[in-house]
Amino acid sequence: MAGQPSFADAPILDAVCIPRHLAVIMDGNGRWAKARKLSRTQGHRQGVVAVREIVANAAKLGIQYLTLFSFSSENWSRPASEIADLLGLLKLFIRKDLSTLHKQNVRVLVIGGRANLPSDIVSLLEEAESRTANNSGLTLVIAFNYGARSEMTDMVRRLAKEVQEGRLAPEQINEDMISSTLYSASIPDPDVIIRTSGEKRLSNFLLWQAAYSEFVFVDCNWPDFDEHQLLLALAEYGRRNRRFGGLAEEDRQDSSKIVASGG
Ligand code: IPE
Ligand code: IPE
Ligand code: MG
After folding, report:
1. Of 162, 166, 194, 203, which one has the fewest beta carbons inside 10 Å?
2. 221 CA distance to ligand 1 centroid (A)?
3. The pTM is what?
């Protein structure tokens, strides 16, 4: 349940590290439903309840960016009825929750392909972005119809066009330019990516941006991912030692001692 962390969470809270950008692969709605002899649709509906909860908790914890993987470019291969359910839930979420998100000072951004989406969905996504554009609280990034390979393919096409039209020389292309030509241009790389349901893969999520992300895989299915689960995952993140190819502070001091002593 959302609300103040319970007394039982106090030791976890000490270990928790708040990332600037948390990204979540919300997986396991179908398995959650199956275990309860419910329909997959009911699993997805319960997944939306967990979405509301993580948005409120991320804002409360002071996380600046929360990216939620809600529909992948590969999810179109699911049965038409399930796709219709998922699109319906997205529409319902935006229609019902946009005012609340706006009141919570949440800024909504959407990453993913928009070219072949139904026009009513595109309008809703645009409305969510434009209505909340000036909010200064949590940035909620909805990854919808998102696939990292198609994001990178789009990026290569855009840069190739610039080169073809003589506005860009190939040797001017650098990592920053690539980052700022992706859908996620204005969003910092995720510090930590949580995946629920026990699967340990990225499933085409943020391949470029995840170069130095920490991964936390949790066994519970997405509808069961509550505040306690979030705090446990952030405590796990807090125990990681991020080096970005360099050295941890204590090893850096050790190695300068060795150099200083000529050893
Ligand atoms: C995550 O749950 C929601 C989406 C991928 C849209 P799943 O629907 O993948 O649930 P499982 O993996 O079948 O349990
Ligand atoms: C990843 O989950 C996509 C989302 C959570 C939206 P999937 O359930 O589609 O991933 P796979 O098929 O198990 O890799
Ligand atoms: Mg799944």
Report:
1. 166
2. 9
3. 0.94
